[in-house]
């Protein structure tokens, strides 16, 4: 389908973008890569009267370690994430996710900030952000905001971003010794939304005891979901095959999938069980290396 008519505006700075949003009101939407918003517009699920293109704002595309954090600019594309030497060496979970995100043409334009700000539980990055306990930095009419990821997703396509706010940066605790992460999603075909997906990040001490654990689920609830009950089972313990099996079962019980063209509820719960166990094992393998 063809989107409804809209007015196009191009911002060259954060200040200009925020001012435009304030002037144009609630019918204005920001767009960076457009690969989350435009499909919804084509289906007439979204019909904004104004599009504010922020893709050319300078200074929001970077990947760097600074202080105690890995910092990623919101306009960093999926392709830049895919080819970052820093992420390849110390944060391989990002590579797992990017390789499963659409196709190269989409990854060349799609940005990590747009993927998260869209608030879609079917996108890959939200579950990953939950697993690594990210912090979201946004700029808006009221200044700079710092939002813990567990307070960011509010509902179906709803986030903590208020009108005029622009997500500018993602901050993630710097990779520690004996830490590792992994992500995988089941999809019907390359580039499809996930039938179900799981992101895991684990930190071990020198004796192999789990000091911190993050588990995020993709597309099995209305909002990106943290598997809190499963995390509590593992935290403070040596992770055994028995505990992994228990957490897989918890994941299948606590997720909230709906039957659709991608599978029945029972099928999706079974997939979540299997992927959770596999990603726990993969994250542990990377942590122990």
From TrEMBL:
Name recorded for this polypeptide: Xanthine dehydrogenase family protein subunit M
Coiled coil: none
Tagged with keyword Disulfide bond: no
UniProt keyword terms in alphabetical order: FAD, Flavoprotein, Oxidoreductase
Record carries keyword Ribonucleoprotein: no
InterPro entries: CO_DH_flav_C (IPR005107), CO_DH_flav_C_dom_sf (IPR036683), Diverse_Substr_Oxidored (IPR051312), FAD-bd_PCMH (IPR016166), FAD-bd_PCMH-like_sf (IPR036318), FAD-bd_PCMH_sub1 (IPR016167), FAD-bd_PCMH_sub2 (IPR016169), Mopterin_DH_FAD-bd (IPR002346)
Domain of life according to the entry: Bacteria
MF annotations from Gene Ontology: FAD binding; oxidoreductase activity
PANTHER family assigned: XANTHINE DEHYDROGENASE SUBUNIT C-RELATED (PTHR42659)
Domain FAD-binding PCMH-type residue range list: 1-177
């Amino acid at each position: 389908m063809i989107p409804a008519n809209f007015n196009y505006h191009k911002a060259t700075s954060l200040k200009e973008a925020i001012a435009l949003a304030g002037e144009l009101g609630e019918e204005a939407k920001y767009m960076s890569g457009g690969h989350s918003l435009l499909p919804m517009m084509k289906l007439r699920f979204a019909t904004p009267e104004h599009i504010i293109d922020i893709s050319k704002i300078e200074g929001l595309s970077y990947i760097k370690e600074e202080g105690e954090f890995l910092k990623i600019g919101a306009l960093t594309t999926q392709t830049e994430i895919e080819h970052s030497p820093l992420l390849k060496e110390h944060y391989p979970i990002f590579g797992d996710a990017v390789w499963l995100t659409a196709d190269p043409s989409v990854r060349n334009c799609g940005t990590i900030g747009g993927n998260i700000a869209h608030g879609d539980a079917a996108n890959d990055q939200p579950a990953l952000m939950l697993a690594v306990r990210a912090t979201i930095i946004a700029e808006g009419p009221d200044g700079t905001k710092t939002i813990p990821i567990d307070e960011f997703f509010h509902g179906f396509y709803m986030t903590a971003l208020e009108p005029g706010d622009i997500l500018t940066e993602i901050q993630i605790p710097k990779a520690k010794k004996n830490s590792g992460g992994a992500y995988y999603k089941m999809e019907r075909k390359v580039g499809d939304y996930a039938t179900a997906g799981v992101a895991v990040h684990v930190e071990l001490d020198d004796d192999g005891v789990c000091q911190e654990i993050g588990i995020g689920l993709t597309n099995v609830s209305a909002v990106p979901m943290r598997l809190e009950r499963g995390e509590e089972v593992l935290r403070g313990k040596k992770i055994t095959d028995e505990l992994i099996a228990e957490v897989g079962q918890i994941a299948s019980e606590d997720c909230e999938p709906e039957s659709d063209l991608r599978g029945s509820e029972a099928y999706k719960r079974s997939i979540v069980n299997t992927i959770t166990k596999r990603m726990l094992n993969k994250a542990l393998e990377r942590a122990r290396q």
